[in-house]
Amino acid sequence: MYPKIRITLPAGTIECELYNDVAPRHAERILTLAGKGFYDGILFHRIVPDFVAQAGDPKTKNGLNQPGVGAGGSDLPDLPLEVSPLQKNTRGSLAMARTQNPNSANSQFYIVLKDAPHLNMQYTVFGRVLENGMDVVDKIKMGDAIIKMEEIKG
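User: That's the sequence. What structure does it adopt?
Assistant: C-alpha cells below.
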C-alpha cells in the first residue's frame, strides 16, 4: 500500500498516493517536507494550460514577484533522478521539477494536466492524484496557495 498525502487548496482537496517503490527518495522527501509544514503557504508559481501546474518554491511564500521565484528549494540536498519505464507523465501524475541537471530535484513538484510523454524517463514521477481530485487540480490558478499538505495516516 502506497503512502498518501492530502493537499488542501483554495479550490478543494486533492488526495495523492506516492510511489515509494519506484521513487523511494522522492516519496520520502515529499513526506518529510510535508510533515515539517514546508509546503504550507507555498504558491503555485507556474501554470501551463494542458501541461503542468507547478509549486514547491519556498520563495513564493512572500509572493510571486520575489527575485529568483521558480529556482528555490528546501535546505535539504538535491535528489538523484529515480525513473522507471512503468511510471509515465500522464494526466494526474506527480513528478519532481529540476534544473537541466537530472540529479537536481529538491522540493518543487508538478502535477501533469495532460499526458506529456516527452517527459517520460526525464523526470521522477513519484505519485498520482487519486479518484476525483483532478476536478480540483483543473481549478488551480497561478498564485493559489497550498493551505496544507499532510500525510494521510491509517
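The chain has a mean pLDDT of 97.
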